[in-house]
Amino acid sequence: MKRFLKAVLILLALALLLAAVAVSSFPRYVETFFKIRSVELTGEIEHISALHFRRALGQTTTGTFFDVDLDAIREAALKAPWVKNANVRRVWPDKINIEITEHKPLALWEDGRLVSVSGELFAANPEEVDNPLALPEFFGRAEMVQEVTRRYKRFSKMLQVVLPKARVTELSVNDRDSWALAIASDDIPPTRIELGVEKADWTLEDRFGVVIVQYPEVVKLMKGPPSSIDARYELAFAATLPEKSLRRYRSQDGRRHAAESIAEANRQSVNR
After folding, report:
1. Is the separation of the CB atoms in 88 and 73 below 8 Å?
2. Which of 82, 102, 122 is the last residue of a domain?
3. What pTM, to 2 d.p., does this model score?
4. Does residue 269 share a domain with residue 196?
5. What average pLDDT score do residues 41-69 get?
6. Which residues pair with 259 in a beta bridge?
7. Which is nearest to 48 in space by CA: 69, 91, 77, 74?
């Protein structure tokens, strides 16, 4: 009986020892088996650079399936170029999936950042845009980006109705809230249009509408597209002569001033 009890106690001790070893090694087993081994990107990833994205994620994906911090991964992903939104989830047993929504570029802001179609500023390389030279340029205070985007869309829609081949190439608002834009097409050289400050009874859209509706008549009258337009007047605007005419008149002015100087010098010499 004593031998039997002794054998039972020995077996029990061995079982407890094995259990202790198993328990102590289980975390290492879990860490090895469930360690995050890959990160999968899905969704809109046309402009996403794998290298830049990995750098943005840093060490946030370190861990196991059970303890990896999804919120930290999402916050890091949102700092990567072009990323507007990121949905992060675990994939059994050792993968992280990040579904990306990209910003859609609309314009180039004055500080080099891009403006999305929803009026958000984001940092990305403009050269990665499909046609970077076609991006309009926006100028103004950063807090005005939503309003500048809204105005651009309205002016562009108006322009397409009246002058379908033209487009808005530049839009700006200064510190005094005075607006200006530029339009261009194959037939219209880059032309700056001053719109001035918004007024309840004479809006920026009212002024722009008058300009583009009358633009073809102005071209006929001036025998060429005007160099610039000032639309800050109510129910009227002023147009600068075409650049070709300006060069001609400047040249004539220069010759006239030169002739007058020579004549004046001759008069002075005779009087002596």
Report:
1. yes
2. 102
3. 0.77
4. no
5. 93
6. none
7. 77
